[in-house]
Write a structure and sequence with these properties.
This protein has a six-stranded mixed beta sheet with strand order 1-4-3-5-2-6, covered by helices on one side. The N terminus is likely disordered. The chain has a domain of 165 residues: Lysozyme-like, CATH 3.40.80.10. It is 25% helix and 9% strand. It starts with a helix and ends in an 11-residue tail after the last helix. The structure holds zinc ion (ZN). Zinc ion binds next to loops.
Length: 266
């Protein structure tokens, strides 16, 4: 969770932080978080070469310059593609970006950060239950924290589904001061208080592998929240899992053995 970043003083754990946040009033924290999301809205993508030119029938065809290739990072104008099997946002919310002026383009992706939800344990696998929980998270981020939208780009549920959160075109709100070029992946639940299901960890590895290949992110640029900021996120059990899967011989590392994205492993 990014809420820890909003907490102006250290506290012992994510549950305590959450309690503190409730006490101080989430709305008051919006100002502290302005650094995560500021500046102006980005324009809609515009492709420059779409004009059809009418020529006399005898004229040779005019070569049409190719459209620009999609950039490695999903900045403005880039084609937005989500990894295979991701449940699109419209399947769980009809709400768009609540504050379009407060959202920035993500730019070229250079890192990925794994989080937990960090509230109460969550084990439900029903699609409706998960969708309702996602909406709770979105509302807490928008109405409580004053953010432009849900903070994370992708969310994994205990059944091993991946849900689209904030569009990958936009910078997320998940690591205080370090959201640039950083994809946020969150696992529903609290992994200080529960262990991730095998479905969650299997899907997490697959999603991370897909994103690493898509954006050319090496394994030493796949972080957990606590590796970038002072927080318990993503919880002890998920942190243990991430330590194992990223190490030499770990499942994520093996899945990428055919790439140069794991060459940094000792
Ligand atoms: Zn986090």
């Amino acid at each position: 969770m990014d809420e820890s970043a909003a907490n102006p003083s250290p506290s012992p754990g994510p549950v305590d932080r959450r309690d503190v946040l409730r006490l101080v009033g989430l709305a008051g924290l919006a100002g502290l978080l302005a650094g995560c999301q500021s500046q102006s809205a980005i324009p809609d993508p515009v492709w420059p070469n779409d004009l059809q030119v009418t020529r006399p029938p005898t004229a040779p065809p005019i070569p049409v310059p190719p459209r620009p290739m999609p950039q490695p990072g999903p900045g403005p104008g880039a084609v937005v593609t989500v990894p295979d099997g991701v449940i699109r946002r419209l399947q769980w919310t009809r709400s768009g970006i609540a504050r379009p002026r407060d959202i920035n383009p993500l730019g070229r992706v250079s890192r990925i950060t794994v989080h937990h939800e960090g509230v109460t344990p969550f084990s439900a696998t029903g699609q409706d239950m998960v969708a309702a929980r996602l909406e709770q998270v979105r509302r807490a981020h928008v109405n409580g924290n004053g953010w432009a939208d849900i903070g994370y780009h992708y969310i994994i549920d205990p059944a091993g589904r991946v849900w689209e959160g904030r569009s990958i075109r936009f910078q997320g709100a998940h690591v205080s001061g370090q959201n640039e070029n950083n994809i946020g992946v969150m696992c529903l639940g609290n992994y200080e208080l529960q262990s991730p299901t095998s479905q969650t960890t299997t899907r997490l590895d697959r999603l991370l592998g897909d994103l690493m290949r898509q954006y050319r992110v090496p394994i030493n640029r796949v972080f957990t929240h606590r590796e970038l900021d002072k927080t318990a996120c993503p919880g002890a059990s998920l942190q243990r899992y991430m330590n194992t899967t990223r190490a030499r011989g770990g499942r994520l590392a093996i899945a990428l053995a055919d790439t140069d994205l794991v060459s940094t492993l000792a």
